[in-house]
Design brief:
The complex is a heterodimer.
Chain A lengths: L4 E3 L2 E5 L4 E6 L6 E7 L6 E6 L5 E4 L2 E5 L5 E6 L8 E8 L9 E2 L3 E6 L1
Chain B lengths: L2 E5 L2 E4 L5 E8 L4 E8 L5 E9 L2 E4 L6 E6 L2 E6 L8 E9 L7 E2 L3 E5 L1
Parallel strand pairs in B: 2-11
Antiparallel strand pairs in B: 1-3, 3-8, 4-5, 4-9, 5-6, 7-8, 9-10, 9-11
The chains are: A mainly beta, B mainly beta.
């Protein structure tokens, strides 16, 4: 099935560093979501974005809905060891009854203490 | 509040054996239900979704089937497992007509040996 392109695929960072990751598509999306998956668990929603240009924060996390509506960015400031996990973006092409979302390929984050 | 339950958490099954994974949602009615599979270190692949009792849509041809015998129950099955069926299976739900993303269950780790 269709998936969004996420980059980087994986990254090792030092504790305290800021992290940036992005998600791109050739299609225009109406909604962008960011999820985090801890090892052995299901993904948990971090941030939802609904308007082009929208910038939303959740604690140390900040995400933006790209102006072109074809991309989104997630930033994590001052990373800590519990930020380890896989981060997924998800987008919705257009409103539909099921609101099916397309997921990105994931960015695996590892934080070195 | 709404909760989603998946079981079992882990399962080791021999090739050729049957499979039944169950997912139930509490605290809501008429949810949209989804089954995803995640191969090791990979992204999320949508397998099936359901918008109502007995209504199943398949996203990819495969060795698996899904059923929704009750409003808040979603079952993933196979008559004969293949090695390639190994993976992390996630159930998810959302409410009809809402754009708040999915809520995922905690997943089932299936190993076919």
């Amino acid at each position: 099935g269709q998936q969004l392109n996420q980059s980087p695929q994986s990254m090792f960072i030092q504790e305290g560093e800021d992290v940036s990751m992005n998600c791109t598509s050739s299609s225009i999306f109406n909604t962008w979501l960011w999820y985090k998956q801890d090892p052995g668990e299901g993904p948990v929603l971090l941030i939802a974005l609904y308007k082009a240009g929208e910038l939303t924060s959740n604690g140390r996390l900040t995400a933006q809905f790209g102006i072109t509506r074809k991309d989104s960015f997630l930033n994590i400031s001052a990373s800590i060891p519990s930020d380890v996990g896989i981060y997924f973006c998800a987008g919705q092409l257009k409103p539909s009854g099921t609101y099916k979302y397309i997921f990105g390929t994931g960015t695996r984050l590892k934080v070195l203490a | 509040s709404q909760t989603i339950h998946q079981w079992p958490a882990t399962l080791v099954q021999p090739v050729g054996s049957p499979l039944s994974l169950e997912c139930t949602v509490e605290g809501t009615s008429n949810p949209n239900l989804y089954w995803y599979r995640q191969a090791a270190g990979r992204g999320l692949q949508l397998l099936f979704y359901s918008v109502g009792i007995g209504q199943i849509s398949s996203e990819v041809p495969q060795n698996l089937s899904a059923s929704r015998p009750q409003d808040r129950q979603f079952i993933l099955s196979s008559k004969k497992l293949l090695l390639s069926d190994s993976g992390f299976y996630l159930c998810a739900w959302n409410s009809v007509g809402t754009d708040y993303g999915y809520t995922f269950g905690s997943g089932t780790r299936l190993t076919v040996v």
